[in-house]
Amino acid sequence: MPELPEVETIRRGLQKAIIGKTIVAVEIRVPKMFHGNKSKIIGKKVKNIERRAKQIIIDLEGKNDLLIHLKMTGQLIYREKVEMRDEKEEVRIKNQIAGGHPSKDWFDNLPNATTHIIFDFSDGSKLFFNDLRKFGWIKVFNANELASLLADSLGVEPFDKEFTAKKLAEIIAKKPRWNIKKILTDQSLISGIGNIYADESLFYAGILPTRLGSMIKYDEVLRLHTSIIKALNIGLKYGGSSENTYVQIDGSRGKAQEHFQVYSRGGKKCSCGGVVKKIRLNSRGTHFCEKCQK
């Protein structure tokens, strides 16, 4: 599942692509993946693209917005101009901005078997929502209700000014019996950090992921706060992690995985000369160095 750097990369791409464009049609091929009345968004202009945690918000004029979650295998593919090829309305690539998880259909003509929702814009461009496993979704929300829902269900954003070392210490203190990795990846506490950037943050901070919140000292909280920002910024700098199937907005692979210190490096040498260890923690693969992290 994409984390903050990957979803933010997609958000930035969509912001360049569809701001100011009007939705003129929505084709829903798999009803369970679209929640709400599509008539509420047809004829509405895109005002802004936002991100909250691992979700994308398309801010529309009027009272309603769209909330998008890519989940495990979702793709958002934008194409500026298309050529209608036949009665199935397949299109050829002319210009595209895309993000998410590419399958082999990435390079095929669209729509394809994994295309489940299609947005048509007034200038002839299209936004395709593909999802091989059909776990992703798009929901129509009243803008005010959406803001309230997200505020109530999600924790602080790491790049918000409210996310200080003091705030992080308060979050950790609330869960003294949780291990620190579980605290970092709980979206109701801190938004946007998942398996990848939790492992990397804890490595930079020199903290073992298995340690309980009650064991984390304040000087370690200070290091961890700095390390979270560092790990996320590295992810953003290199266009996200394509360690598995994620791609950047232009379809190219992100390079953050080339700079991982521990994530997905179980059994390999750490920069200190030790060996990166992999265990199961909170039902997730977890990576760390016993020499660098205490």
CATH topology of the largest domain: N-terminal domain of MutM-like DNA repair proteins
Largest sheet: 5 strands, antiparallel
CATH hierarchy, class of the largest domain: Alpha Beta
What string, H for helix and E for strand, traces the elements in order?
HEEEEEEEEEEHHHHHEE
How many alpha or pi helices?
A: 6
Q: What strand line-up does the widest sheet have? A: 1-8-9-6-7
Number of domain modules: 2
Number of strands: 12
What is the second-level CATH architecture of the largest domain? Alpha-Beta Barrel
Helix content: 10-25%
Mean pLDDT: 90
Let me know the CATH homologous superfamily of the largest domain: MutM-like, N-terminal
Structural class: alpha+beta
Strand content: 15-25%
**Which residues sit in consecutive blocks of at least 5 with pLDDT less than 50?**
84-94
- Shape by Cα distribution: globular
**Global Rg:** 20 Å
Distance separating the two termini:
28 Å
